[in-house]
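re: ur msg from earlier - yeah i can do the adenosine-5'-triphosphate complex, just paste it... oh wait u already did. ok heres what im feeding in:
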Amino acid sequence: MNLIRLSLRTLRREWRLPELRTLGAALVLAVAALGVVATLSARVEQGVTASAAELIGGDLGVSASSPLPREFANHARAQGLAVSRIATFPSMAFASSSNQLVDVTAADRAYPLRGKLTIRKAEGSPVIDAHGPARGTVYLDHRALNDLGLTPGQSVQLGGITLRIAGQMVSQPDGGQLVAMAPVAVMNLADAQAAGLLGTGSRAGHKLLVAGAPPATKAFASWVKPKLAPGQHLLTPQSSQQRMRESFDRAGAFLRLTALLAALLAGVAIALAAQRYARRKTDEVALLRALGTPRRRVLGLLTGTLVGLAVPALLIGMGLALGLSQLAWQLAGNLLTSAPTTLPWLPTLAAAAVGLAVLAGFALPPLAHLAEVPPVAVFQRSQQRRVHRIDLLYLLPVLVATGLIWMQSGSNQLGPILAASLAGVVVVALLLSAIMLWLARRLAPNAHPGLRLGLAALSRRRGLSLVQATALSLGLTALLLLGVVAPSLLQSWRNELPADTPNWFVLNLQDNQRADFIKTLHSLGADRLNMLPLAVGKLVSINGTPVDKMHLEKGDAKHWANRQLRLSWSARLPSSNKIVAGTWQGADPSRPMVSIDERWRDMFGLKPGDHMTFQVGEATLDTEVSSVRKVDWSSFQVNFFLLLDAAHAGALPHTWIASFHLPRGQSQALSGVVRKDPNLSLIDVNALLNRVRSIIQRVTLAVRWVLGFSLLAGILVLVAALASSAREREHEAALLRTLGAHRSQLRTAAACEFAMLGLIAGATAALGAAGAGTWLARRVFHIEHFVPPLLPLLATAAGAAVIVMLIGLAGTRRVIRSSPLLLLRRG
Amino acid sequence: MALDAVDVSKHVTGPAGRIDILDSVTLRVAYGESLAIVGASGSGKTTLLGLLAGLDTPSSGRIHMDGHPLHDGDEETRAALRRQLVGFVFQSFHLMPALSAEENVMLPLELDGATEARSRAREALDAVGLTPRRGHFPHQLSGGEQQRVALARAFVNQPRILFADEPTGNLDRHTGSDVCDLLFQLNHAHATTLVMVTHDVSLAERCMHVAELDEGRLREPA
Ligand SMILES: Nc1ncnc2c1ncn2[C@@H]1O[C@H](COP(=O)(O)OP(=O)(O)OP(=O)(O)O)[C@@H](O)[C@H]1O
Ligand SMILES: [Mg+2]
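and the outut:
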């Protein structure tokens, strides 16, 4: 009790010390920055997950190759979740004069729980939202209607029963897949069951979709996971979307990067302030020890003071974090839709915990060392110095930093890369400072007197100079990464989806329609046209073994082996593809060749030189695997797992598939074309594009909000680093004044000293930020060809160096003004 | 005349109103003379020393050092005068903690842009008998040794006037008298004018003149 009161009294007395205030401010900033990042990223993630849910039609799903047990649905309902069941299967649809294979979705009336199923009641009527069709009715998409020669209102035979066409299906939650391969029909689930289309032995896939409050969804997921039989899979928004995956990952990495850098900046400020506070307290502690205070009590007193400082600082930081995240939502509400009305507390609490860890990690070592000050230090100041040896305790901040990085980095390489980069910055800063100090020693004797003093001062305070240079370098690197590199990375990301990214696809284009279609597109102002042939076939055998005789372990492999495959060919390697094994087959190889995607290599254990036989219509094609490709599936381009060579595949029966960019406002005109050529199937991917763009926008927003804090934290680092030598400098200046030093001598000395510090920090930070940025771009953000913005980096670094010098000079003004009499009085 | 102070007063305005520290002090010190300023604690000794050395300006009155006015003119001119004419010894030594003994002694020479700073510093250190410790830092030296380094520093640029504020105040009697002997020895050797604040009666007695301060006023010598 007594100790607590004493600690609080100490705190109150020492509150006017700048060291303690810096410590408090650094802590407030750390918690506020971390809290804002955490809360905003929670919100951004919520938004992103919600938009992903719209693509699978629910917050969560279970997919299986046979009907799912009733127990699952019942349990979900008991948890208060909405439930919907669907089944998908291919089926032949019959009209009076024609028939067509269609992909059928059999859905209950609740479908979809998330996202939209949209239909047109009749040709040309407006698009409206709908749910699974009523019994006895069906929705057919444009292609199915066209191929079968039907219109809404007429009947179609599907799976042996006759259904009335209640509308033209325009869109449905499709798992984010860009282009459906076959025409689509949506029918009632009960009808399908009654018709016996879903029984065992059918090829139907079954899905149970649930939606509701996040905790209930989570609870259901963990309940159902251990109950999943072979062939049953959990379907989460995160896992289901190939195309959005990369965007989610990048968004997360960006948010974590900003949070980490903000925390590290605050950590550096805390460490510097604590070091300085400890130095200031040395005399006092020596006195306490001399007066017989036991070490434990000294330590307790110091810890108590620290805790007394930490509690209000944490509270203020949390308040700031909550208030500012709330403000951010209000200002950018349109970006952070589907937000709950209550403020999430958890991220802020977590931020406070991390802030506490940072404080403990960075501030405790110097303070704990203080307790080691021997009582004789009262008489012999030399004894105090001995305490500043390096020992295990100084591993603590390193451990905390590592823990932080590890915690934040998740599964990707963000953490290790950042840690390595920062370690590199430390090494370079130390090296540069050592060289500069050595040079200073060499140059000092022959230099201008003022310069000589500055150089001498730097090299004589070697330890402190090294600490200052390193801290400044680290702080500046973090700032440059946040302020210059991150925006430029975001810009590169945005550039991957330029304004003219292909936003439309066309399917089913016939050879004789090609020329006309291209002409029409040009007249509509479309560009970036990319057209590839498309043939549909089956995999017959691999290396001579028929696939149905093969023992395929992987579920995926079984799935693909049975399926209709999309085959294409091209003379040149498509732009978003990269060869990772073998060589590209070229335009005209001597034998039939195929180039496969990595996923196929993994599923079937294929390698270049293996043989694959395909059947397309009546024709059989025996091909040799020429190469394995890595495909960038997030590029909005038509891509294929299997690419045949153009010379041997050209004669296969095929249609054409094309992607192109259509300027805004031309979609009406495009629909006109389709009316003229009704077999064409047009797909608008603007919605998907916008989804990715909105993720980028959200991340940009979050990064911008954190940047403000980080700037503050950076300034704090600057001030703390420069202040760490202020006392020595003040004493020195007063003494030099007494001995008759010119004002200009003092000023030159200070300018030279700080210019050198600024130079070291600026150069190291520019180098470090550029290096770390490039590394992160390659490995974490997968942004190819990222060039760090060297000019802005150098300019900012130079600016920072000048600011360091100016702040340093401003600090000396006070020292120069103060009367040299000070020294006599202090005596 | 080395120092010529006429009717010098100093007052400061604190929270409790005006405090008169010095009241119409007049004194003169000729070249080669030595003056001890004595008086009770708080009587204004340090303040007077600071004024005479040009570290501060009086509220009223005139002070000339070597014929140059100290009471008007800016700090820069006074600094130049100090650089050329003055040496200092402090009660608590005030060596630069980051500089070795030798570098500390070099400092006044360096500030003046003098040549051969190092060799002259070595000579000065030799004169105080600290040649073996010249590479050591202040925290590695005893109080007496530190004060000897301070003496070497004070004499190294051969000042015409030396100011000392209780130079033995932080030392034991024995060491103090050693340092004192050294001080007077150097003083004689360089024919320096000496102004010294001290509590030590025996020290004061070794000076040619004694001025006693009593609550800011100069008491006539008994
Ligand atoms: N800046 C100031 N503000 C207020 N009071 C001051 C200031 N400077 C000096 N004084 C006061 O003037 C008086 C004389 O101070 P000074 O240091 O000259 O005394 P001193 O004779 O050197 O004492 P000591 O022997 O204890 O060193 C003291 O009462 C002191 O409190
Ligand atoms: Mg005094």
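cool cool. The interface with chain B takes residues 380-382, 385, 449, 452-453, 456-457, 460-461, 728, 732, 735-743, 745, 819-821, 823-827 of chain A (CB under 8 Å). ping me if u need the other ligands too
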